[in-house]
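Researcher: Sequence recovery benchmark, item below. Answer with residues only.
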């Protein structure tokens, strides 16, 4: 068994940027990223996650236009509205549509502080996505409390961080009432690769450095492949609709798609979770500054 390609959304925050703990692709050309998207397309993957502030938003639009691709599913996010939210979101949305040159599948709130505008005027936002022929509207959040008191329906999605060391949304996933996208499934590659960019790693707090070392040692001692371990864990979550992950080169995506999933003993996942039990699993809090 392999990861279901139909459930994959390609994360593109690292395209044309240095986003991520292992990413060294900021200086790569547009053609380089076109080749990455072409390889995904050859494997039937035309789902993309981007944002109005990512350079990848326009790159995706240029790619789809150049290859005359009309069956893509695109999620994009808008940042920071304000009390003039009605005009501001239209301005952002018009720019995103111009960049993407394609329909938008789901439009996400990226700033949790802006969710108050949806609570205040949900009809406006639901009418807005109807006006622009957007299938769904969603919330990209870090904690379950951020979507408290929102009445969910089939037009609303949530995008959440979720992986084998971050289970704060476990109860919500089990409810099976939501359209769920999970992101940060590899924690920017940290759960797969101990060779983190030096200038990134030196700023980690001592407790996360210690936990990561224990984690990678545990997998090595038990002869467990990190990618197979993480993907197999996620694949068991049947109520998750889509998995979002980034990739920096063709080999990474090829490896993910060709990794055979395994039914690991649940005990091993619990042992890994215990390693991180006393560590703040919000990456924002991992840094010293």
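Model:
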């Amino acid at each position: 068994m392999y990861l279901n390609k139909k459930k994959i959304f390609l994360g593109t925050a690292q395209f044309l940027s240095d986003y991520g703990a292992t990413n060294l692709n900021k200086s790569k050309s547009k053609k380089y990223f076109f080749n990455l998207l072409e390889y995904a397309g050859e494997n039937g993957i035309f789902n993309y996650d981007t944002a109005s502030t990512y350079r990848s938003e326009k790159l995706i639009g240029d790619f789809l236009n150049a290859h005359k691709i009309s069956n893509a599913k695109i999620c994009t996010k808008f940042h920071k509205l304000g009390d003039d939210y009605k005009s501001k979101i239209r301005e952002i949305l018009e720019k995103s549509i111009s960049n993407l040159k394609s329909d938008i599948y789901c439009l996400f709130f990226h700033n949790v502080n802006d969710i108050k505008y949806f609570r205040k005027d949900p009809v406006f936002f639901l009418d807005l996505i109807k006006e622009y022929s957007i299938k769904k509207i969603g919330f990209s959040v870090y904690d379950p409390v951020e979507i408290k008191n929102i009445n969910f329906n089939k037009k609303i999605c949530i995008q959440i961080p979720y992986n084998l060391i971050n289970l704060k949304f476990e109860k919500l996933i089990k409810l099976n009432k939501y359209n769920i996208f999970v992101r940060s499934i590899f924690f920017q590659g940290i759960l797969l690769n101990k060779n983190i960019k030096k200038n990134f790693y030196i700023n980690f707090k001592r407790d996360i450095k210690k936990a990561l070392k224990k984690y990678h040692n545990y997998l090595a001692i038990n002869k467990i492949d990190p990618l197979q371990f993480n993907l197999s864990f996620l694949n068991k979550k049947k109520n998750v609709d889509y998995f979002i992950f980034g990739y920096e080169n063709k080999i990474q995506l090829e490896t993910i798609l060709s990794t055979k999933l395994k039914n690991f003993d649940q005990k091993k996942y619990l042992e890994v979770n215990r390693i991180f039990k006393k560590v703040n699993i919000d990456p924002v809090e991992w840094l010293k500054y």
